[in-house]
User: Which sequence fits this backbone?
């Protein structure tokens, strides 16, 4: 899939086109969610993604997102979504996520994501607060649960 957004902007889901070094630079240096992520890990995440969508301006990578799925059937996790600062405010983030979520073979799945600062963007695309059945376990909580389990044993 390639989709022209006008003014030199384009979306493309070809993994071979992704400039992994550019994506890594933003994610490891500027993101709040994966600061310091190693380049080899970023490459594996792109390679193993269920789908990626790149955002390009005049051929240069200026945005990205990826879909991760453990089984390819039940749900999909939207990750590593970004648009470079100098290209924001044009609706490109909405188009990037819309392409990933609504215009893909994965559109009929349950989608999950984490965000600290883009709630309004995701609401426009149908995301809302998690239902009462969704829970999260973070790595820092795992060590605490292990120590509590041994205390009760």
Assistant:
């Amino acid at each position: 899939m390639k989709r022209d957004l006008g003014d030199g902007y384009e979306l493309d889901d070809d993994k071979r086109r992704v400039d992994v070094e550019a994506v890594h630079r933003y994610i490891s240096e500027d993101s709040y969610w994966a600061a310091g992520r190693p380049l080899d890990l970023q490459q594996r995440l792109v390679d193993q993604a269920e789908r990626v969508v790149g955002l390009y301006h005049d051929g240069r990578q200026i945005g990205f997102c990826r879909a991760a799925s453990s089984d390819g059937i039940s749900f999909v996790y939207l990750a590593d979504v970004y648009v470079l600062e100098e290209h924001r405010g044009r609706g490109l983030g909405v188009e990037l996520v819309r392409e990933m979520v609504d215009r893909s073979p994965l559109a009929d799945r349950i989608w999950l994501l984490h965000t600290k600062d883009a709630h309004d963007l995701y609401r426009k695309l149908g995301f809302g607060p998690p239902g009462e059945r969704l829970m999260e376990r973070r790595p820092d909580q795992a060590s605490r649960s292990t120590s509590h389990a041994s205390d009760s044993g």
